[in-house]
Specification:
The protein has helices spanning about 5-15, 30-35, 55-65, 85-90, 105-115, 120-140, 150-155, 155-165, 170-185, 190-210, 220-225, 230-260, 265-270, 275-285, 320-325, 355-375, and strands spanning about 40-45, 50-55, 70, 145, 295-300, 300-305, 305-310, 315, 380, 390, 395-400, 400-405. It has about 400 residues and is of the alpha+beta class. Helix 8 (about 155-165) runs antiparallel to helix 12. The radius of gyration is 21 Å and the shape is globular. The N and C termini lie far apart (about 65 Å). The structure holds protoporphyrin IX containing FE (HEM). Protoporphyrin IX containing FE binds near residues 290 and 294.
Length: about 400
């Protein structure tokens, strides 16, 4: 039997997923040099599988749009060591449509899309302002220094998801405590398992309550649609939490750090607040917090930009490398809020493109200006080199951001 192309080349090159950044806002140098060598590189996965790492913008975009590449969980391989690796190799639980293909994916995504309406996002805007205001009041009251991650970046998206789902006020502290365990990098696998079980019971109670007493929120809307079982509804709620919390929180934390470290950009935004939309898009592109993935597996042999990807091969798409590809973006290494970064892939592309992207945008558009307005003298409370980063994580960001004002 002849070796498949990735097997042969992986043995020659033995590329593993690159980490190790030269500075907090730059991609790993190895990732950049791999893209310079070619858009698609053979890669060895920690479980011994051989597959591909895709770093060129056009190749990443075309694979994300191609139904011959699957998102089914049981077909995927994870390119970095992961404690729950074995548990991943089975079909996704009902409702976890991020790891499904059509028609299953469509069955869930359709009613969800109908709930993420412009009207609901508009309704959430004043609540996002109130939530942000409350967090800023709490920071001001406690006085400097404060950890911006703990006091601002983490609670805002968590409370916004409570609003979206319709979690009652009385349950929000518990919701936030459990979310914090889930996102704490030091949490043990046992604690994480117990917290996931706790969420399952929490959502079961919440769905029962919404059935009895519906309101104008996403869960009530889905229940009214009548298309999903209680188990599916609970898992959808959990998926929204997992997909929407850590991502937005890291954008708020890392985005603030980036603006503080680029005072010319912050000054430009302060001088012209209408630049906020550009700022959000440029931060999304420049920081590309999804460090690892999205992941796919080829369902059949596919040729992409001169590489033959064989049926079954795992594929890791580097959004970060794609978003810094000079073949697509003029001067991609610079953070420039005056230069709109249309076409970045930070929210993915194709069927699975982020369902919550408008919500994430509203959160950032609201929270960044309110933070810098409230604390005009906001600055780091430690030297920049001492800000602890989330290095080997699938979502990149700051672990803590000590600030003064
Ligand atoms: C800055 C913040 C965010 C980033 C960078 C982000 C990024 C992404 C990316 C890259 C994907 C595609 C995954 C794939 O192709 O396999 C995705 C999917 C998804 N995101 Fe987001 N996301 C963010 C915020 C949110 C929020 C706030 C929510 C909801 C509250 C959300 C819910 C989802 C869901 C449900 C999916 C799965 C969509 C599908 O499979 O059809 N995300 N996100």
């Amino acid at each position: 039997m002849t070796q498949s192309q990735p097997e042969a080349q992986a043995h020659q090159e033995a590329v593993t997923f690159p980490f190790g950044r030269p500075s907090p806002f730059e991609p790993p140098e190895r990732l950049t040099s791999l893209r310079e060598e070619g858009p698609i590189t053979p890669m060895v996965y920690p479980d011994g599988a051989t597959g591909w790492l895709v770093t060129g913008y056009s190749a990443v975009r075309s694979i994300l749009a191609d139904p011959r590449f699957s998102s089914r969980r049981e077909l995927l391989h994870i390119p970095v060591p992961f404690p729950l690796m074995q548990e991943m190799r089975r079909p996704a639980d009902p409702g976890m449509f991020i790891r499904m293909d059509p028609p299953d994916h469509t069955r869930y995504r359709k009613p969800l899309t109908a709930q993420f309406t412009v009207r609901r996002m508009k309704q959430l805007e004043p609540r996002i302002r109130e939530i942000t205001e409350e967090r800023l009041d709490a920071m001001e009251k406690a006085g400097p220094p404060q950890d911006l991650v703990k006091e601002f970046a983490l609670p805002i998206p968590s409370l916004v998801i409570c609003e979206l789902l319709g979690v009652p006020y009385a349950d929000r502290d518990e919701f936030q405590r459990s979310t914090a365990v889930l996102l704490n990098l030091e949490s043990s696998v046992e604690d994480i398992r117990a917290t996931i079980a706790g969420f399952s019971a929490f959502f079961a109670r919440l769905i029962e309550a919404k059935r009895a007493d519906p309101a104008d929120d996403l869960l009530s809307g889905l229940i009214e649609g009548g298309e999903l079982t209680d188990e599916e509804l609970g898992n959808v709620g959990f998926l929204l939490l997992v997909a929407g919390h850590e991502t937005t929180a890291n954008m708020l934390g890392l985005g603030t750090f980036a603006l503080l470290q680029h005072p010319d950009q912050l000054a430009a935004l302060r001088a012209d607040p209408s630049l906020i939309d550009n700022t959000v898009e440029e931060l999304l592109r420049h920081l590309t917090i999804i460090h690892v993935g999205p992941l796919r597996a080829a369902l059949e042999d596919v040729e992409v930009e001169g590489r033959l990807i064989k049926a079954g091969d795992p594929v890791t798409l580097s959004l970060m490398a794609a978003n810094r590809d000079p073949a697509r973006f003029a001067d991609p290494e610079h953070l420039d809020i005056t230069n709109p970064a249309a076409g970045h892939l930070t929210f993915g592309h194709g069927l699975h493109q982020c369902l919550g992207q408008q919500l994430a945008r509203v959160e950032m558009r609201t929270a960044f200006p309110m933070l810098f307005d409230r604390f005009p003298g906001l600055r780091l409370a430690v030297p920049a080199e001492e800000v602890p980063m989330r290095e080997k994580m699938s979502i990149y960001g700051v672990r803590e951001l000590p600030v003064r004002w």
